[in-house]
Structures are given as C-alpha cells and as structure tokens.
Amino acid sequence: MHNPDRARRYRWLIYGLMVSIYFFVYFHRMSSGVVKDELMEAFGLTGTSFSNLNSMYFYSYLIMQIPSGILADTLGARRTVSCGCLTMSLGAFLFGAAPSLPFLFWGRLLVGFGASVIFIAILKVQTCWFRESEFGVMSGITGFVGNLGGAMAQAPLALLVSALTWRMSFYCIGIVTLILSALAYLVIRNKPEEMGFAPINPVLPLRVKPRIPVALKNVLTNKRSWPSFFINCFFSGCSMAFTAWGVSYLTECYGISVVEAGSITFWYPVGMAIGSVVIGIVSDRMKRRKLPLLVSAIGSCTCWAIFAFTEPSLLFVRILLPVMGFFGAFIVVSLAVSKEVNDPRFAGMSTSLANMGLFFGGAVIPVFFGSLIDRYQAAASGFSLYHAPLRLCFVFVLFGFLSCVLTTETRCKNISAAQTEPLP
C-alpha cells in the first residue's frame, strides 16, 4: 500500500494519541505542588519530606531513561506506551487510595515509572513517521501539549480538588489514564511499514536492529551528547523545584489563596508550552540549534535573577512567570541536538540520555530547595525564606548556560559519523 496521503493522516492519529498521554505525564509531574498542603496535613510531612515525595517521580523517571531508550528501540512504541500508561494509571489509583505515607511514596514512584517511557517513545515515533526537517517543530508541539498538562495541574486541579477532594481527583485521573492505555495498544504502530505504507525516512537505517551494548557505548562516549544532558539537568531541575514550591512561594510571600496562586502559576507552563512551539519553529527555519539555545538561556537566567535577588510585585510576577516559562522551553532544542549528534539508529537511547539529565536535576534540585526551606523556616519568612533556595537555583542555571555555550551546532541535520561509517 503506497498511499502517502493516508500515511500522513494516520501518523497524526498516532501522534495525537501519544501527546494526549504525554499531557498526563506533565499533569502528574506538576500536580504535587497544588495538593502540598493537603498532603502535609494528612501525612504530617515536613518541607524536606514533601520534596522527597515529589522527587520519587523523578527518581523512577531517572532510573528508567536508558531502559526507556532501549525499550523504544527494541520493543517498540506501541507496547512501551500502552504498558507505561497502564503503570501510570495504577500509580494514580494507589496515590489516591494511600492509607499511609509509604503507599503515597509507592504511588508516586509507580506514576514516575509509567510516565518515564512516554516521551522517548514519542521521539522514536517522530523519527519513524516524520521527516528529519520536521523534528524540531514536532518536538515543540509535543512540549506545547505536555506543558498544557502542567498548566491544568495548577488552578484547574486546585478547583477539582476543592470540589472532589484530592483523593477522588486522583481516582479520576487514574480512570482517564487507563482508557488511554487501551487506546494506545489499539492505535499506535511503530513505523509506516507496519501499516503497509512506504517508509517516510528511507535514508535512515532504522530497519537495522540495534545492538544495545554498541549503542550505549557510542552514545555515552560521544562527548557531544553531554551538553544536552547538563542543560536539562540544571534548567529543568530548577524549573521542577519552582513548580513544586511556586504555589507556596506565592501564598506565603503575597498572602493570597491557593486557588489564586494556582491561577498565577498556571501561566508558567502555558508560557513554556507556547515557547516550545515557537523555538522549535524558529530553530528549524533558521537551520540553527545553538543560537536559539543561547538566546533563550540568557532570557531564562535573567528571569531567575529577578526572583532570586528582588521582591517583585504580584502584578510583575503575573507577567514574569509566563515569560520565564517561554524562555525555559528551549530544552526541546537540546533534545533535537542530542539526536542529531548520534547514530539515528539509536534515536531512543541518545534522546533518553538528554532526558535523563532533566530528571536527575528534577530529583535532586527540589530536595536542596526544600532542605533550605526547612533550615531557615524558624528564623525567616516570606521573601527572606525563599531567597536562599532561589539564589541556589540561579547558580545552577548559570551552569546550564555554560552547557549551552558548549553545545555543538548541527544545522538541524544528523552529523554523526554513523551517517557515513557503519558500526561494527
């Protein structure tokens, strides 16, 4: 069957379903900040223990990044996504039903395990179903939908929790995720050939079955892979810390309600969603990766400096948060770079390494943030309490900027030696 129009229509069906699942990956990632007070009251959590609970998602995500790439490259996106989505659903049910703190931690851990495989599988599907020149834009759209999920985990989730309680809210999330798991198995196909279509990227050696030890060695020893890892580690780790504590920062520094604070933090992931699409389009049209990274990183560092060293008015914060989110969206370009400096046969493993940085930072930096809150809470309050952890984050994002400087320019093409030299 050689019908390019039908192949193009079907790829959007697959992609649409996968990013719908990715919506809930971000929703889960950012949901804990809104229910922080309920969890602290129900289970007697401190700032550090809450940060550790929040980080369970990122620990499991971190552990699974290299296995996620292996699963995407071997098992395929269809089975990987459906199983991951099912695990995420079970985690949501356990989190909502948790009778004690250990069950709460296990629920969060399960959600992280399930969510960990989704993004890499989407990138793998993009590699098979979309042209190389479309990768930046598609990654931007993926980031857009994911960040919308993060936005819905702010004020909309706060309203849902106030109407249904936090436990019932997570039961509802588990039911929706369970339905998506079944749809994933029914709809997703790993590559066009499985539907009888001609390959969309015939020049890529994607039919060669990857040899896992060789793939890991090539990806991990490629020094051009690592700047993307550290960009994600520092910038995204700080972003996760702010997401976890943003509502508390607003309620304690400005004396507003949780719902109002959620309505303000809502715009942070919205800005990131818009930025994901814009930077993906700009990068692809410029045929540049490094310049968009540097410009966005400078904007992001400036926003962090304002939070770390000033006491901005609430009106200014309403403006600053979406701007900060917009500039923070450049990680979609770092993922494209990671793919373009490595053998295209190992797109799953190479992007999983970059993604691993995101969750290493997301697991560690929020714990530092929470421990500083606990340390100074007895002697400080309001802005004085939050300036120390925010200044630590500012130092981290400066290291992230240095990683952008060290990034290799690919001009939106795969520049790996594997394009001309076959692996053993």
SSE blueprint and pairings:
Layout: H1 4-31, H2 36-43, H3 47-63, H4 65-74, H5 77-97, H6 101-115, H7 118-129, H8 135-152, H9 155-164, H10 166-187, H11 212-220, H12 226-254, H13 258-265, H14 267-286, H15 290-309, H16 314-327, H17 331-340, H18 347-376, H19 382-405
Helix pairs in contact: 1-7, 1-8, 1-10, 3-6, 3-18, 4-7, 4-18, 5-6, 5-7, 5-10, 7-8, 7-18, 8-14, 8-17, 9-10, 9-13, 12-13, 12-17, 12-18, 12-19, 14-16, 15-16, 15-19, 17-18, 18-19
Structural features, described:
It is a single chain. With 424 residues, the chain is mainly α. It is globular, with a radius of gyration of 21 Å. The chain starts with a helix and ends in a 19-residue tail after the last helix. The C terminus is likely disordered.
Q: What general form does the structure show?
A: globular
Strand content: under 5%
Class of secondary structure makeup:
mainly alpha
Quantity of strands, as a count: 0
Major sheet: none
Gyration radius, in Å: 21 Å
Uncertain residue segments: 203-208, 418-424
Could you give a short description of this structure?
It contains 19 helices and no strands. It has helices at 4-31, 36-43, 47-63, 65-74, 77-97, 101-115, 118-129, 135-152, 155-164, 166-187, 212-220, 226-254, 258-265, 267-286, 290-309, 314-327, 331-340, 347-376, 382-405.
